[in-house]
């Protein structure tokens, strides 16, 4: 564990990181979050094609291609404040944009396509907004392997058939609490996404409503995401476990 203030600490603690504990658990957290999440990644200025860093559309923040990042929010307005800029940044850069959300699809589509910053040359198939349940449960149940196959087909088609240089996807996960008897298969899926992402030029942003998830589940969610978007900051998640390590810990 990295200690704040030590000269060999490569991740200087930001005020956002120090407030992470309070954001999740109030004044008495069960884990020392502030030393496990550290500010990371440069801000970016340029938009456009595939590059070393991919803009999130929020406060100039960026992440490397191949990143699996989770964002925490409270309520639909906070969710949309993350999703809409993320999609707009993708449209401006010529990315294929996939968005899976639980509700408010028409409102998000209108906020994105009606924005003055959307370039006129945006392709008709560049933005796809779908229902979470219709996608994750399209065969009537959730299967980690079937969902991984879905992303493989979707991203491969966007790159190799539709001609997009990059794919950015975002998915809301609140539906899991209503539709799944347990989260084990879903957590395996989240972990396996970390093997899938480096295969293509892409990023995936997962969305979790803090008003719906308890602390124990959040710990497991954090273990499957290398980076966290919280409070306008991208944090390096030192609780993250590589897929093999995560799967071994579940046995």
Distance between the termini: 25 Å
Mean pLDDT: 83
Main sheet: which strands, in order across? 1-10-9-4-8-7-5-6
Q: Enumerate the spans where pLDDT stays under 50 for 5 or more consecutive residues.
A: 1-19, 27-35, 42-50
Number of E strands: 10
Looking at this structure, what is the CATH superfamily? Answer: P-loop containing nucleotide triphosphate hydrolases
CATH class descriptor name? Alpha Beta
Task: Encode the helix/strand succession as letters.
Answer: HHEEEEHEHEHHEHHEHEEH
Helix content: 25-40%
Strand content: 15-25%
Describe the structure.
A hairpin with a 6-residue loop joins strand 2 and strand 3. With 251 residues, the protein is α/β, with parallel strands linked by helices. It is globular. Helix 3 crosses helix 4 (105-113) and helix 6 packs parallel to helix 8 (184-196). The strands form two sheets. It has an eight-stranded mixed sheet with strand order 1-10-9-4-8-7-5-6, sandwiched between helices. A two-stranded antiparallel sheet has the order 2-3. It has one domain: Rossmann fold (3-Layer(aba) Sandwich), CATH 3.40.50.300. It has helices at residues 15-18, 20-25, 76-93, 105-113, 132-136, 144-160, 176-179, 184-196, 215-223, 243-250; strands at 37-39, 54-55, 62-63, 68-73, 96-101, 127-131, 167-172, 202-209, 227-230, 233-237.
């Amino acid at each position: 564990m990295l200690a704040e203030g030590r000269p060999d600490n490569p991740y200087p603690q930001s005020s956002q990181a120090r407030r992470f504990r309070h954001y999740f658990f109030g004044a008495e957290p069960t884990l020392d979050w502030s030393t496990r999440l550290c500010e990371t990644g440069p801000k970016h200025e340029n938009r456009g094609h595939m590059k070393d860093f991919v803009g999130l559309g929020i406060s100039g923040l960026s992440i490397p291609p191949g990143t699996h990042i989770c964002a925490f929010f409270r309520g639909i307005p906070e969710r949309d404040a993350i999703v809409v800029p993320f999609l707009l940044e993708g449209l401006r850069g010529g990315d294929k944009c996939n968005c899976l959300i639980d509700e408010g699809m028409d409102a998000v589509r209108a906020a994105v396509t009606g924005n003055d910053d959307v370039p006129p040359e945006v392709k008709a198939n560049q933005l796809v907004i779908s229902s979470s349940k219709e996608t994750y449960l399209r065969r009537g149940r959730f299967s980690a392997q079937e969902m991984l196959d879905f992303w493989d087909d979707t991203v491969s088609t966007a790159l190799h058939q539709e001609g997009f240089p990059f794919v950015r996807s975002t998915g809301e996960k609140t539906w899991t609490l209503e539709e799944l008897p347990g989260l084990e298969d879903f957590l395996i899926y989240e972990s396996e996404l970390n093997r899938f992402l480096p295969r293509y030029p892409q990023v995936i942003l997962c969305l979790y409503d803090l008003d719906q998830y308890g602390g124990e589940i959040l710990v497991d969610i954090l273990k499957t995401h290398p980076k966290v978007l919280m409070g306008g900051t991208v944090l390096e998640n030192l609780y993250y476990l590589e897929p093999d390590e995560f799967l071994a810990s579940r046995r």
